[in-house]
Write a structure and sequence with these properties.
It is a single chain. The chain is an alpha/beta fold. The chain is built from 16 helices and 13 strands. Strands 2-1-3-4-5 form a 5-stranded parallel β-sheet. β4, α4 and β5 form a beta-alpha-beta unit. The longest helix is centred in the first third of the chain and has 24 residues.
Length: 401
């Protein structure tokens, strides 16, 4: 059972939030002032801390700074709660390392889901880095699966790419740099790979190890990379025509089910009650692009409508979340260390087995213009976050050897 500290004024929403956590087997310690909560954390460090910005004695910002200055408490994820949008100067006054930022009024079940995702991410990556002598981790907003396959292919490395996306976990297996298999619940190998190629937010870690696994996927890496680039472009085009993925929608009344295909019925059944678009895509259990196309069709036809909870996080809230993400500090780039994981291959071999440099440059340029997903800050000292600039420098180190 995970220990959660909640620092908030006593209220009905706070009581409902505590009840939601307890229903999901979390143990909640509730405090109404930051100083008492900090003293408790010194005695019993919790797994996650949720705090209102405006609490007495030690407000949210002061508490955050004290936690980050304490070696025993600095790795505890901190989530801020706010009654209204804070001015940009107030956000920037915080130290880097904010884990999440939730606006009131919140949906208790959604807050529980966010906390659970943060805990899973920290624990999974921590275990992976403990078990593996060689590996690296990062976020999919900076390095998606296409980039990871390219990098491991360049070094002819064997290992497993572990992908974390919301509450989904996927695996991609490589033998000497070649993709041989993929796993994602409810999908065959090819469907799993196709779905994960469109995951543009979440996190990953890579373990480098020799595999004793039969090859299931027969596509060349070149074909996989070209497919991934195409899928990402389609995904972004469709996403740009939809409401924000945090919007909640639900099925409208009076739909003629006889006019729907079996797949359409299956997808529409996911939205019988209010569901966030992002969550709905995962629940459909189809490849992400197919789900996105059907959701777009349903919205255009009026079969999906805005749910009562859709206003909980409005557009202004999304903009403030973007500001918070921009001021998070990335961990130092260790280009030489990462490059040492890979051995040099001839440029002729690399170019013959991968998309043209023009294709890749166009893809990388498009990624920079259209960043997607949430950029979770490093929460553990040994996690290595890689930007696209970092990736280019790593490749320079490899080719210079």
């Amino acid at each position: 059972m995970h220990e959660i500290v909640l620092i908030e004024q006593e209220s009905e929403p706070a009581k409902r939030l505590i009840e939601a956590f307890e229903n999901h087997r979390f143990n909640v310690s509730f405090f109404q002032d930051g100083l008492e909560a900090y003293q408790y954390c010194l005695r019993t460090p919790p797994r996650v801390i949720l705090t209102d910005l405006d609490v007495p004695k030690l407000n949210g910002m002061q508490l955050f700074k004290r936690l980050k200055e304490n070696p025993l408490l600095k790795e505890i994820p901190v989530i801020f709660l706010a009654k209204e949008l804070e001015v940009e100067e107030r956000i920037k006054s915080m130290s880097p390392g904010i884990d999440d930022y939730i606006y009131k009024p919140y949906i208790p079940e959604e807050v529980v889901a966010r906390v659970d995702c943060i805990i899973q991410e920290v624990e999974t990556i921590d275990q992976a880095m403990h078990d593996s002598k060689h590996g690296f981790a990062g976020n999919l907003a900076e390095m998606n699966l296409v980039d990871l396959i390219q990098t491991l292919d360049l070094g002819e490395k064997s290992g497993v790419i572990h992908l974390l996306h919301d509450d989904e976990k996927g695996l991609v297996y490589l033998d000497k740099g070649k993709v041989i298999d993929a796993h994602l619940d409810s999908f065959d190998s090819e469907g799993a790979l196709t779905t994960m190629l469109t995951w543009l937010d979440g996190s990953f870690y890579v373990t480098l190890e020799e595999l004793q696994r039969a090859r299931v996927l027969n596509k060349s890496n070149r074909d996989i990379l070209l497919l991934g680039t195409k899928l990402i472009q389609e995904w972004r085009q469709l996403a740009g025509q939809l409401p924000p993925f945090d919007s909640a929608v639900m099925a409208s009344n009076g739909i003629d089910n006889n006019s729907l295909t079996p797949i359409e019925k299956r997808v529409l059944s996911v939205f019988q009650s209010p569901v966030r678009i992002k969550r709905g895509i995962s629940l459909c259990k189809l490849d992400g692009l197919t789900s996105l196309k059907l959701i777009q069709k349903f919205l255009n036809n009026g079969w999906l409508v805005a749910a009562p909870t859709a206003g909980t996080e409005n557009a202004d809230g999304n903009e403030m979340m973007d500001r918070v993400k921009e001021i998070r500090e990335s961990s130092h780039s260790l280009h030489t260390r990462i490059a040492s994981f890979f051995k040099k291959r001839s440029q002729t071999d690399f170019e013959s087995e991968n998309p043209s440099q023009g294709d890749l440059k166009e893809h990388l340029a498009d990624e920079k213009k259209n960043p997607s997903g949430r950029n979770h800050q490093s929460r553990l000292a040994h996690r290595i976050y890689l930007s696209r600039g970092d990736l280019m420098l790593i490749r320079q180190h490899i080719l210079a050897e």
